[in-house]
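Notes to self, Site-specific DNA recombinase:
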Amino acid sequence: MERKKVGIWIRVSTEFQVKDESPEHHEQRAQYYIKSKDWEAVEVYRLDAISGKTVMDHPETQRMLRDVRTGRISGLVFSKLARLARNTKELLELADIFKTQKADLISLAEQIDTSTPAGTLFFTIISAMAQWEREEISARVSASVPIRAEMGKCTGGAGAFGYKWDNKQFVLDENEAPVRKLMYEIFLECRRKRTTANRLNELGHRTRKGAKFTDTTVDRLLRDTTAKGIRLANYTKSTGENKSWELKPEDQWVEVPCPAIVDEEVWESCNAILEKQRNSRNKNGRFSYSLLGGIVKCSCGKPMYVHGSRSRKYKCSSCKNDINQEALYGFFQENLNQYIEGIKPEIFIAELSTEIHNKADLLNTTMKNRDALLKRMDELVDLKLNDGMSSEHYKARYYPLDEQVKQLNRSIPELQAEIDYMRIQMNSSDYVLNGVKSLYTDWSELEFSQKRGITETITQHIIVGKDTIDIALAYLPTTLKTSQHNLMDLLTQETQKKMSFNIVVRLNREPVVLKSLIINAIPRLENGSNSICNDYASEKLCGV
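result:
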């Protein structure tokens, strides 16, 4: 049978004790005990003139623990517990380590030997004390977290992308915040997480760790409330070491005000889109090639589409209900003029000024990031030339940086051009006035994506029955906007805000007559009514 290998622990705290309580005496006493047990002493760990207040970081302690973990020793003999450590926390920690490694602690003065049944009981008591202390510490920490959170103090972890902790204050990160803002703008424009991630990557932006953006990252950051000025704290808890975190009950969450990156309306709009996508379990596909495709629905509940390039009607595949598409298109064009008259150009100048400022911040961040990457690339070149970095290692680190720099170089002129163009627009009052007046007449000249974006955003529902059409346009704040590249976009968005009404008319299946009915109904809006009932519609239909 193989003999048990043990170590001898010798610690005296002062020079006087070194002389008075000879380390050799302690060692000899331990050797006698080991011999009586027919064990083998393979190591001696000496800590001369070392205080017992803390010993865990001492090189001899670390050497002893390595020997325990590697199995070089399976027991440690010492004269008494006070010689092992006087710090209760460290004593419990050592006992826990030895128990985990199935090793024994032997104290000669207290006559404790954990290789015996009595010693096992000691281990049990020690473990219980350690568990109690850990739980007590955990409880104290947990109790302090909500208090620290309500005080706005850090409760652990780094700030979300776009933020940082600076001198114990949660502040905007000047390099990341413009990118986070751009993420919301791109998503409002395309309504697709993967497209947003790809666009950010193409522009040369990366996450804090230097990785490319993914749809998962975009989803997490879009949902994070810090962007709208609310930092959540004390809302998660750990389920154990190396395990996932789970949410606490909402009544334990703490909301702390913080600097906002986007307006609350923008955040709410993005999250409404995300929730709609989650609830439908379907991601948005490509935009429909017809203006109202997927928006107009039959009274039976089924969507109506224009089937085929030659068709002029929206049809329901279920009940075969249909309506002429030109009649519906005419509604949107004719109503724009009713709301253009109240639009004030100075509103758009203020919007444009804000957008220029945001673009300038993004340009500055982009250029700083590029310069930092170029510096890192130069450092890699020096390492390869002077320190002999291997070609494989060099390529693995240099090429990704080179790709990102090229992407940033492509995005910088684009940003500069956008800023220059918007500044020219803002300085041209004639352009602003003419732009307001021409939106109605230029509706037919707008790109399909612009028309579709306006229509999709402002329309609450369009329901076509056998004899009626019910069209509801939703109210939208001015801050709900896509990425603006010209004043026309701003104008169309203010128009969205003005449209907030519901119209119900009785249908005549001739397109010209239907258009006439809609036009006749429009003046009723001037009286402040939220619902329009055409003169030709019945009282029962209108509910009056």
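- The chain has a mean pLDDT of 73.
- The first strand starts at residue 5 and ends at 12.
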